[in-house]
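Supplementary Note 3. Input sequence used for the single-chain structure prediction.
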Amino acid sequence: MAVEFTGRNVSVTSTLRALAQERVQKLERHLGGPAQVRVVLSQEKHRFEAEVIATHRRRLWKAQEETGDPRAALALAFEKIDAQAMRDVEKRRDRKHRGAAPARPAASEEPASSPDSSAAVSPEWRIVRTSQRSTVKPMSVEEAALRLDNGPLEFLVFRDAANERISILYKRRDGDFGLIVPQC
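The predicted structure, written as discrete structure tokens, is reproduced below.
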């Protein structure tokens, strides 16, 4: 836990430091690791401004709050940081678990349904069409691997130049490539 304080036209008291240390510990519990926090307190006339910048594992959150009380400004700024960090953690968690498909019963296990009930039942998945159209170009497997490695695509459909068959090359999670050659 690294907390850096800066006071502009205001002295940073021990109670403000303790409040910031307490809120940083709470933030680190949510993030699951140490965070670096920079706190800038400033006073202009009767208004106190607290600016908090927190970093954790190449992620950055900023918050700025202005009130008549320095403790309240600091607390509100940390509330904003907590909300930003929790949103980011939830987004990352959702992205990580989004790839898991729900278990669907096999076609043989589904009971036979009447024509009336089939209209009421909708599948759990949906098919999304994309507007990108690509032509199946003849190329070697090595050329397809180079194109897939250098581009943003996750898979590539191509015609194998050696045997004139349609093939699919895809990126595997372990970093290698997988090749699918359908039997026609």
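The chain is about 35% helix and 30% strand. The first strand starts at residue 2 and ends at 8.
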